[in-house]
Amino acid sequence: MNAKEETIDLLHKLAVSENQKVPAGTDELAIADFEKENGVLLSPQLREWFLFCNGGALGPGALYGIGNASKFVDIESMWALYPEWKARGWLPLASDGCGDYYILDLGCKIQVEHPVFFIDQADLEPPSYIMASDVWQFFRGLFLSELERDPETFDFYWPFDEKKVLEDDPKLRDYNGTVPFAWNAD
Description:
Helices cover 37% and strands 11% of the residues. The protein is of the alpha+beta class.
């Protein structure tokens, strides 16, 4: 099973565990409108993600999407709050329910995909650490950590266990940017 298939399977399991439905996707026209209105070009992975799931209150916080009626899960609403993110090419993908965010950096690549970074609410710039090498690896890790975390201690390995994370997301080894890995972050 590849990361995309596993992510979709994990999202279904997470929705069941939270007694919710998997949020619906959007369509190609909405994606094209979003790209045109915002002057961005979404990666093939992100397009696939939005066609499958276009935001919703699921997981530790929220999953962001495009053109959503609810400003709480809408990327453009997040950009209105943090216009510097849009200027930098940072696309918010999700929140953690504690005021922190996960952003896709449209200006950075690992191999051919854009990495996902964690932004702490206490210091919105620069990102605190890198989470994943691409969209599918990020959502896979996010959903897996929600499903596998210890309910007593809330402990989970992702993204802090170097060996396990690199085993799950080997493309991270190719990252050579200035944002630290979670296991090296202060």
